[in-house]
Amino acid sequence: MRAAVASIIAETMEGLTLDYPMLSAEQKKALATARRQLESER
Question: Distance (Å, rounded) from C-alpha 35 to C-alpha 38?
Fold first, then answer.
């Protein structure tokens, strides 16, 4: 039973088209600013 469930899950996941989200230049800039802020709090 577990093997059947694992097989179904694996096949389903392989069929998904998963990609990292694409960020705009503005979003990248906001993330860089947040990162600098967090790193300065150490």
Answer: 5
Q: What's the pTM value of the predicted model, to 2 decimals?
A: 0.52
The residue extents of the domains of the chain are 2-40
Looking at every residue in the chain, the average pLDDT score rounds to 95
- Tokens 């600013």, located at residue: 33
Q: Yes or no: say if 2 and 10 are a contact pair by the CB < 8 Å rule.
A: no
Largest CA distance in the chain: 51
For residues 24 and 13, give the distance between their C-alpha atoms in angstroms, rounded to a whole number.
Answer: 27
Angle at the Cα of 16 from the Cα atoms of 31 and 23, rounded to 5 degrees: 20
| Token duo for residue 21 | 């989200």
